[in-house]
């Protein structure tokens, strides 16, 4: 049966992610367009909606002038149950293209060479996280659950905790921030990024920080957070309370106690040897340690996170979590999935069947290999193309008998590395098609665009094999989607061992994408595998994919979060 939520009816869930399920853009005529977003995070969370109701807070992809916000907000709320966090285009650029996608993304995927650390981007990251925290803290009440998603928002748990337990003046945070940015950021940049003068406090929503103690920064490596004494009437805490208990006392007065915060990382968490390259490695870890539950796709990512906490913060960890400031952050493995029935049922639709038949006619007598990736350097697209080239060179009898249909979904096009990749892939496709192609036949059909769901489903169903060659990938849901669309053909799944999915998709042909020869051999094996073997592989794969669904992922995470109290588990801890 379906996984069941154990939360009570009145317990509210708020999901926060940078990307909303819908992205807004504005055309030349000034009209707004709402487009379905792509990526594994949106696919999985959308798949949870049937079982779990939640309000979804995130960035709509575009700043909207004040005059238009009311109408846009209404549409977001009514049609998608979403609440926007607006960021100026400049701040969003530095937060999204800058810190998130030019620093954290490459680093978490073992590309430290691509990482460009820039203090202004860090400042913007912190600022954008603060804007999110303001919206969330405004919305949440005692007992709510807040589930924060992914690497764009790793400071949000800490900022939210300090906001709901007293810290309220944004200016104070900014001043502190300026004090710690290591390379000097000049006042002009600060004004640009924050739209304010450095050092000028701007209280939020008329709140003042009078009467509450606030969290101060960590003073030394591994040192404790301090409660700073401030002017005004301070609450009297009984002796011996932990920071966690004090936070809860202050939050209670504001009607915001017992708020559980969860965090899930959709990317890998790298080995501490890579992670420690990050100049703000401590701040990022401290940002998520204010959670009650921290989840990863695989056991390895969770282990890397815990060992980073030990090595970088000097904290003692337990196998399933870590005590910090009196709060226990449980750490666990929650492998994400998809909604397989969406593909199984999608395939029955007339439109998809018609399209499938047309494609089958088009590729008659030819085997089809499918690749579906955001055009991202972690997806190993050049490695995939090289492997195909080697395969065709070594097996010329397959020339004209196999095509690779590679869909490359445009992604993060303002980031330089993505522009370089685009040029590199274009060139490779041109060269390989030039080498093996004829007027009648091209070995690679390359589409750099987003395709509609029906087309995607038909392509998955058409293909005799799917090729995922990521050099690192949090999970990779494309593999799950292909398997779900193969109940008839039982095509082969060729899967990189560097994708999180390799830990679970037993029945795939695993490859090391850096080893071009063995990838070429795997293509050969996939194409020549007999029907019995393919069917038995597919049975194993599909039974996993239909059990570990997006829904199962969401429900198990939220159920666990419901059970936690922030207190360390019974028995000797920390
Ligand atoms: P990532 O999250 O890195 O993009 P995944 O493989 O986990 O990689 O997820 C990609 C997701 O994007 C899949 O669920 C896939 O169906 C979805 N997708 C692919 N093409 C489109 C598209 N044109 N529009 C919307 N979503 C798409
Ligand atoms: C990955 C990330 C997600 C992101 C998605 C699409 O799956 O983990 O957080 O939403 O890629 O990327 P984008 O930059 O368009 O949000």
Task: Provide a short characterization of the protein structure.
By secondary structure, this protein is α/β, with parallel strands linked by helices. Helix content is 43%, strand content 15%. The protein is globular and about 80 Å long.
Structural write-up:
By secondary structure, the chain is α/β, with parallel strands linked by helices. The protein has 20 helices and 19 strands. A 9-stranded mixed β-sheet has the order 5-4-1-6-9-10-13-12-11, sandwiched between helices. Helix 13 packs across helix 16. The two termini are 38 Å apart. Mean pLDDT is 89; it is low at 168-175 and 196-232. The protein binds adenosine-5'-diphosphate (ADP) and 6-O-phosphono-alpha-D-glucopyranose. Adenosine-5'-diphosphate is lined by residues 36, 38-40, 43, 372, 374, 409, 450-451, 456, 475-478, 481. This is Alpha,alpha-trehalose-phosphate synthase [UDP-forming] 1. Pfam families: Glyco_transf_20. It comes from Kwoniella shivajii.
The whole-angstrom Rg is 25 Å
Strand line-up across the major sheet: 5-4-1-6-9-10-13-12-11
Shape: globular
Given as residue ranges, the uncertain stretches (5+ residues, pLDDT < 50) are 168-175, 196-232
Helix content: 40-55%
Terminus-to-terminus distance: 38 Å
How many strands in all?
Answer: 19
Query: Which molecules other than protein and nucleic acid are bound?
Result: adenosine-5'-diphosphate, 6-O-phosphono-alpha-D-glucopyranose
Multimerization state? single chain
Q: Please, what is the average pLDDT?
A: 89
The major β-sheet equals: 9 strands, mixed
Which structural class matches the secondary elements?
Answer: alpha/beta
């Amino acid at each position: 049966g379906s996984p069941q939520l154990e939360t009570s009816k009145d317990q509210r869930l708020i999901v926060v992610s940078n990307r909303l399920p819908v992205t807004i853009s504005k055309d030349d005529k000034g009209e707004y367009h709402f487009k379905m977003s792509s990526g594994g995070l949106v696919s999985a969370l959308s798949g949870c909606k049937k079982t779990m109701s939640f309000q979804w807070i995130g960035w709509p992809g575009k700043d909207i002038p004040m005059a238009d916000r009311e109408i846009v907000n209404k549409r977001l709320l009514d049609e998608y149950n979403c609440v926007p966090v607006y960021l100026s285009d400049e701040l969003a650029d530095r937060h999204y293209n800058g810190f998130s996608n030019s620093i954290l993304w490459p680093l978490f995927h073992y590309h430290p060479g691509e990482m460009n650390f820039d203090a202004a981007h860090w400042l913007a990251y912190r600022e954008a996280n603060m804007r999110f925290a303001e919206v969330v803290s405004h919305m949440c009440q005692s007992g709510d659950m807040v589930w924060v998603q992914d690497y764009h928002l790793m400071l949000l748990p800490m900022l939210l905790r300090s906001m709901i337990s007293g810290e309220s003046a944004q200016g104070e945070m900014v001043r502190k921030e300026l004090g710690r940015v290591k390379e000097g950021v000049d006042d002009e940049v600060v004004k640009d990024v924050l739209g304010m003068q450095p050092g000028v406090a701007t209280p939020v929503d008329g709140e003042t920080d009078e009467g509450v103690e606030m969290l101060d920064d960590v003073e030394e490596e591994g040192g404790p957070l301090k409660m700073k004494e401030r002017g005004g009437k301070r609450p009297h805490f009984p002796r011996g309370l932990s920071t966690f208990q004090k936070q809860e006392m202050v939050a209670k007065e504001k009607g915001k106690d017992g708020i559980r915060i969860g965090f899930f990382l959709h990317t890998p968490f790298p080995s501490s040897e890579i992670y420690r390259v990050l100049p703000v490695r401590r701040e990022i870890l401290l940002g998520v340690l204010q959670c009650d539950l921290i989840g990863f796709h695989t056991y390895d990512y969770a282990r890397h996170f815990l060992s980073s906490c030990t090595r970088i913060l000097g904290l003692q960890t337990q196998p399933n979590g870590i005590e910090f400031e009196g709060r226990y952050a449980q750490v666990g493995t929650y492998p994400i999935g998809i909604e397989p029935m969406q593909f199984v049922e999608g395939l029955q639709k007339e439109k998809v069947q018609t399209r499938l038949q047309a494609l089958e006619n088009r590729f008659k007598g030819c085997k089809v290999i499918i690749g579906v990736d955001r055009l991202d350097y972690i997806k190993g697209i050049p490695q995939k193309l090289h492997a195909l080239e080697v395969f065709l060179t070594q097996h010329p009898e397959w020339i004209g008998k196999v095509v690779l249909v590679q869909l490359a979904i445009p992604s993060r096009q303002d980031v330089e590395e993505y522009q370089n990749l685009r040029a590199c892939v274009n060139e490779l496709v041109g060269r390989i098609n030039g080498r093996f192609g004829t007027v009648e036949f091209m070995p690679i059909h390359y589409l750099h665009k987003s395709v509609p769901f029906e087309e995607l489903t038909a392509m998955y169903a058409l293909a005799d094999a799917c090729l995922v060659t990521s050099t690192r990938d949090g999970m990779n849901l494309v593999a799950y989607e292909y398997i779900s669309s193969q109940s008839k053909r039982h095509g082969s799944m060729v899967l990189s061992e560097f994708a999180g999915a390799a830990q679970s998709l037993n029945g795939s042909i695993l490859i090391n994408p850096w080893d071009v020869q063995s990838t070429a051999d795997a293509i050969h094996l996939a194409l020549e595998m007999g029907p019995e073997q393919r069917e038995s592989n597919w049975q194993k794969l599909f039974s996993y994919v239909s059990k570990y669904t997006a829904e199962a992922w969401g429900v198990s995470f939220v159920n666990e979060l419901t059970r936690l109290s922030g207190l360390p588990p019974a028995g000797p801890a920390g």
